Amino acid sequence: MSYNDLDFSEELGIKHDDNVWNPSVAGENVIGKLIEKTPNVGKYKQLKIVMENEMGETLTIFCQTVLANLMKQAEVGDILKIIYEGYVPDKNYNMYKVYRANLEE
After folding, report:
1. How many domains does the chain have?
2. What angle (nearest 5°) sits at the alpha carbon of residue 56, between those of residues 98 and 47?
3. Nearest to 48 by CA among 30, 31, 29, 67
């Protein structure tokens, strides 16, 4: 059998999720449980995180440098709130704040 006769229907690479968070207005936020944390994903070697909200819906976030640095302390299973603080033109990056829920009450 020739390689040319094989079925090449399985595409490799990043599976594009329709639920990708791309905030554009300062103050936009997402709250959920961190269920996946995968480093070096895609062309730009970004940290990919997946969060699940209370209704079980998932949201994928591709972290640029600032957010990736903040996420270093987060662990899978943490409940987080990520707030987009806006774009800083003179520094050419987006700012975020990340909060972890305190579940020890």
Report:
1. 1
2. 40
3. 67
Which domain does 83 fall in, by range? 17-100
Residue 25 domain flag: yes
C-alpha 82/C-alpha 29 separation (Å) is 5
Q: Does residue 1 lie within any of the structural domains?
A: no
pLDDT digits (tens, 9 = 90+) for 34-87: 999 999 988 889 999 999 999 999 999 999 999 999 999 999 999 999 999 999
- Summarised one tens digit per residue, pLDDT across range 86-104 is 999 998 999 999 999 988 7
Find the CATH number of the domain harbouring 33.
2.40.50
Phi, psi of 61 (to 5 degrees): -130, 125
The string over 18-54, giving b where at least 16 C-beta atoms fall within 10 Å of a residue's C-beta and e elsewhere, is eeebebeeeeeeeebbbeebeeeeeeeebbbbbbeee
Residue 9 has pLDDT above 90, yes or no: no
Here the tokens at position 1 are 């059998």
In a domain, 40, yes or no: yes
